[in-house]
Amino acid sequence: MMRIVPLSAVPHHASQLTDWLWQAFGAGTAREFYDSIIRSSLHGADFPVTFVALDADDTPLGTVGFWRCDLISRQDLSPWVAALYITEAARGSGLSAALQQHVLAYARERGHEQVWLWSTFGGYYERFGWEYQCEALEFPDLRVRVYAQRV
């Protein structure tokens, strides 16, 4: 049985999630950057919030964030679904969809009407109801695809 909880409920997994995000998204970025995001999500503020999917043995399977901003070049857009990561062993199990739906429900409960997400590739998030909006730049010069979804 899998469950999705805020990282603040299981803070002992913070270091593991930091490692995942740094390894998956951290090219050229210090591990401390991801650690600061993860650590700041433990304080109960509105942003950022980190969710973790756990199996029946309390082993982390994946994570996703709910952030105020995830794209410096588009600070006019908020909030964002960010840092979606699924362990290799859990890929293909529907966990990505479950984590996305969890964040969308969380955003809806907090009165948000729309959420944003960016990706370096197309064809994946469309399967989950995300609609391509535009191209933008991730710092300093990476072209990315910006998606939105009504909640």
UniProtKB/TrEMBL annotation:
<dbReference type="InterPro" id="IPR016181">
    <property type="entry name" value="Acyl_CoA_acyltransferase"/>
</dbReference>
<dbReference type="Pfam" id="PF00583">
    <property type="entry name" value="Acetyltransf_1"/>
</dbReference>
<protein>
    <submittedName>
        <fullName>GNAT family N-acetyltransferase</fullName>
    </submittedName>
</protein>
<dbReference type="InterPro" id="IPR000182">
    <property type="entry name" value="GNAT_dom"/>
</dbReference>
<dbReference type="GO" id="GO:0016747">
    <property type="term" value="F:acyltransferase activity, transferring groups other than amino-acyl groups"/>
</dbReference>
<feature type="domain" description="N-acetyltransferase">
    <location>
        <begin position="2"/>
        <end position="151"/>
    </location>
</feature>
